[in-house]
Amino acid sequence: MNLPSPVSAAVQAGAASIDGADTAWLLVSTALVLLMTPALGFFYGGLVRRKNVLNTMMMSLASVGAVGLAWAVLGYSLAFAPGTRWVGGLDHALLDGIGLEAGDWGAFPQLLFFAYQGAFAIIAAALVSGAIVERMRFGAYLAFIVAWSLAVYAPVAHWVWGGGWLGALGALDFAGGAVVHINAGASAVACALVLGSRRDYGRQAFLPHNVPYVLLGAALLWFGWFGFNGGSALAANEVAALAFVNTLLAPAATLLVWMLLELWRSRRATAIGAATGAVVGLVAVTPAAGFVPPGAAIAIGAIAAVPSYFMILWRPRTRLDDSLDVFAAHGVGGFTGALLTGVFARTAWNAPADGALAGGWRLLGAQGVAVGAVFAYSLVVTFLLLKGIGLAASLRPTDKEESVGMDVIQHGEQAYNRGEGAVLVLERRNPPRATGGEP
User: Fold this and answer.
1) Is 176's pLDDT higher than 80?
2) CA-CA distance, 202 to 190, in Å (whole number)?
């Protein structure tokens, strides 16, 4: 089996027994990564209008249930069971053969590795929701993220980490720059294309309703990302420490450069801009976190701010209504980080191959192939999935329902009790039945 790129010495030796320290670190890391999904709900929820905040946060929370179970039933097997160069087999469907003994992945129970990778699949699906918030029916969304996790996420994870062709090519992705972020960014473009623009897009300003939510979400995402990157060492060792430090430094650099860009352009450094910059830096360092020295992580973070910042400025001039700029933050940030991994990676800092700065031009080429292949596959398959679901069920609410808001129409609830109007609309649509002799 072709092991994932962040491999410790213990893993390479085929650890046969459980190591308490490694197990404890992966348990903590799994919890940290799972925390990122509700954190994303706050980040996205603060960015939308108040009438859609619950629906937006539910799209993140629902991924835990829908994708978490899909991962146990089939997704994990498609990603990590022995199979072809393109997809894993069915040996681990319904967690068959996944027990408490140590396996090929490290000195911890195989079942824990399943849970850790499941948290990745959950947050990856939730990321895509940022492109379609405020305009997708919730039932259709649930069907979509289950299908996406099996048909898009699991095969790409297999390509890179599960013995597939990109791992064999030599492409490096320490913690998911391509598997999670480019994958989600490309899918966001496909989702925006299929669903079309929100009602009044381009004619009305869609202002964030709660900036403190955005800051809270960004802070919790950063906190969880220490498990996302640090845990990908799959051991409590020096590689985990390197990834941990780089997860601190890279987004700090992006955050600073982002604020300077805003000050240069408008003389105001915004809170939403700062939060976005931190997330972009986290995305960019993800593929490189355990393969580059801290100085290179700072450079990656600083460089990544520029393309994502200008993509966010440019996108509203188009008809592509990627509501919360998932492609600009995760797609472009993932591109930048993956390619710069091919520039800055060093064998002296745990990388299997040197990057271009050390003469390793072949690695940069492999990174380019990985970026292009993941983007193209994710874009096309996501587009086809949504078109297929759209044949069976309506993807979008009516214009009238959209104007009322997804919270009331899809969930029958409001985030803020400031009036009865929206509830009355729902009651008119679904009048209560008479019971107990009442008229």
Assistant:
1) yes
2) 19
